[in-house]
Amino acid sequence: MERITRQGEDASTPQKLLINIEEAAKMLSLSRPFLYRLIDEEKIPVHRFHTSVRLSVDELKQWLVDRRGA
Q1: Which helix (H) or strand (E) holds 13?
Q2: Would 28 be classed as within a structural domain?
Q3: Which pick of 18, 28, 45, 61 has the fewest CB atoms within 10 Å?
Q4: In angstroms, how far is CA 41 from the centroid of its own chain?
């Protein structure tokens, strides 16, 4: 099975499952304050670990697909 990689990424580099707010904001081309607002309004899926907030790359992709139909 062929592994799909992002541009500039080596096939041996493991993909991150969870990303932080800054990475998610860049990935979605959103401002950090707007992303925090979506999180506070529970409009985007997150995972909380004590005081840390992480977002699943797969869940973000699915969220975008779901929003396309809205």
Answers
A1: none
A2: yes
A3: 61
A4: 17
